[in-house]
Design brief:
The chain is an alpha+beta fold. Helices cover 47% and strands 10% of the residues. The protein contains 23 helices and 14 strands. The strands form four sheets. An eight-stranded mixed sheet has the order 1-10-9-2-3-6-5-4. A two-stranded antiparallel sheet has the order 7-8. The chain has a two-stranded parallel sheet with strand order 11-12. The radius of gyration is 30 Å and the shape is elongated. Bound molecules: adenosine-5'-triphosphate and magnesium ion. Adenosine-5'-triphosphate binds next to helix 7.
């Protein structure tokens, strides 16, 4: 994934412009435009249409970063654009034509919009407007920018900035285009986009913009789950800003309790940890300590203590990991996360309370691996490290988590940990014990693995067959059934 543009370290965003005092809107983009983007602009221009780079791509270029996606606005009608590019896809009624190649460019006909009965989709889209009209329908001044080429070969052009986006970018001020109340009522997603941009660029909210968000925060319930999920993931995936910044802003603006109530209620739940703060602060710090490249793991950090709100009793949170796993699943299901992502987070929340100490036997280490699953170990270590950072806990050097990791690695190298690593399989048992395939075979395989986890040296074909006989004999003795396996030595107990 391309690196998001990161705000400058000092007070201002480092804007890269080639403006002169005689021509303040001049902007040369030498070396900044991929050839594919230039090709799209040139083709449209060559066919007699006006075409400019717009929105987030211009904003990102101005901050010295590389845009994640490229948007072009044009006077050409969608069908005219589509006819100019082989393989172009024109699929929606908003007239966005996607031109393939490297990079992909989204070309949209100048348009204006009116009426948003569902706070999401304009009731009417009108074509054939001007670039200025097109910019006026955009959400924030920093996104209502365009670069209109003057001499494409030399990458020279002019910055079109009718709402003062360049200054707002420099002053780190997020401001809605036009009347904020109206803009946020039109499309509630802008409430979340505001949080994301303010977080990403370290911006303040312009007072009227902020007041409108506060007032309209409850309308975020009308957003589709998918749009909320995607915005949330984008907030968690910012290399330039920790999740806590976005979540604090969401809380402050009244969006957290509306969209993530399970998390919001952790505010005020006391914690006794070396690092002060309630369970919400602790959760935010845990998310911050996880890598931005893995937003779902960050989400696990954010949600790992959800169970604390309802389990606090006598200074303890007994069983909070089970309650928390159910709440995390509830939240993620509501937001339509993929089943595999929900399972990943649930599993981590459920297992995050493991308490290793050096007295664990090798068999205990093997049982731990089995309980957690080999595939989840790295996630769980990462979550524990983040949890430690968030709590102010320092693991003893050479012991604690590092030691557990070493011991786990050692067991993974040698000992069998899964049924498929047993020295025999179900069909061997069917053949050797004259048993029909079915639940008894399944039970036996499970019991054999349990035994091998305790004593890996028993994992030989003969050893396991002998053990299988013992287990069957013990079970039939226990249930008072007939002894069908006369050879089985007695004396061992079947597992419960
Ligand atoms: P990102 O860097 O995350 O891609 P972006 O600003 O480029 O941010 P896009 O979703 O790519 O966001 O949209 C491109 C442009 O379209 C925006 O810069 C903005 O001008 C406009 N836009 C996108 N979504 C909205 C919206 N919900 N309301 C108004 N304008 C929008
Ligand atoms: Mg974009």
């Amino acid at each position: 994934m391309a690196q998001l543009p990161v705000p400058g370290r000092r007070g201002d965003l480092e804007l890269s412009t080639t403006a002169t005092s005689r021509d303040p809107d001049r902007l040369a983009l030498v070396g900044r435009l991929p050839r594919g983007v230039v090709r799209v602009l040139r083709t449209l221009e060559g066919a007699g249409h006006e075409a400019s780079l717009v929105g987030g791509s211009v904003r990102d270029l101005l901050c010295g970063g590389e845009p994640l996606d490229w948007d072009v606005a044009t006077s050409a009608a969608p069908e005219q654009t589509a006819a100019l590019f082989r393989g172009a896809i024109w699929e929606n009624r908003f007239g966005t034509v996607t031109v393939g190649g490297q990079p992909r460019v989204e070309v949209t006909t100048y348009r204006s919009e009116s009426g948003y009965r569902d706070r999401r989709r304009p009731d009417e889209v009108r074509w054939g407007m001007s670039l200025a009209d097109d910019l006026s329908r955009r959400d924030f001044t920093i996104n209502a920018l365009a670069w209109l080429p003057v001499d494409l070969r030399r990458r020279r052009g002019r910055l079109i900035d009718p709402f003062g986006g360049r200054h707002d970018l420099r002053d780190r001020l997020l401001r809605a285009v036009g009347d904020p109340e109206r803009r946020f009522s039109e499309d509630s997603l802008r409430l979340l986009r505001a949080v994301r941009f303010a977080t990403r660029f370290g911006m303040r909210l312009e007072p009227a913009t902020e007041a409108a968000i506060r007032r309209l925060a409850p309308t975020a319930t009308t957003l589709s789950a998918e749009r909320v999920r995607d915005e949330l993931l984008q907030m968690l995936r910012l290399p330039s800003a920790p999740p806590s910044r976005a979540m604090h802003l969401m809380e402050d603006l009244g969006l957290l309790s509306v969209l993530l109530p399970e998390l919001a209620v952790l505010r005020g739940i006391p914690q006794s940890k070396p690092v002060h703060g309630d369970a919400l602060e602790h959760s935010l710090r845990a998310a911050d300590a996880l890598p931005w490249r893995d937003p779902v793991l960050r989400l696990a950090g954010l949600l790992h203590d959800l169970g604390k709100a309802s389990t606090l009793a006598g200074g303890h949170f007994i069983g909070h990991e089970q309650v928390g796993a159910a709440l995390a699943a509830q939240l993620m299901t509501r937001l339509r996360f993929a089943g595999s992502e929900i399972e990943r987070v649930m599993h981590l929340v459920q297992h995050h309370m493991f308490a290793y100490d050096s007295d664990w036997t090798d068999a205990a280490v093997r049982r731990f691996i089995r309980r957690v699953g080999v595939g989840a170990l790295d996630d769980l270590y990462a979550l524990r490290r983040a949890d430690n950072v968030a709590s102010g806990v320092v693991e003893p050097s050479g012991a604690g988590l590092t030691e557990l990791e070493l011991r786990v690695a050692e067991q993974l190298r040698g000992a069998p940990l899964e049924q498929r690593q047993l020295a025999l399989d179900g069909s061997d048992l069917v053949a050797e014990l004259s048993l029909p395939p079915g639940p008894t075979i399944g039970w036996l395989l499970g019991a054999l693995l349990e035994a091998v986890l305790e004593e890996p040296q028993r994992n030989t074909r003969t050893g396991l067959l002998e053990l299988a006989h013992e287990l069957l004999a013990a079970r039939s003795a226990e249930t008072g059934g007939a002894r069908t396996h006369r050879n089985a030595p007695a004396g061992r107990e079947a597992p419960d």
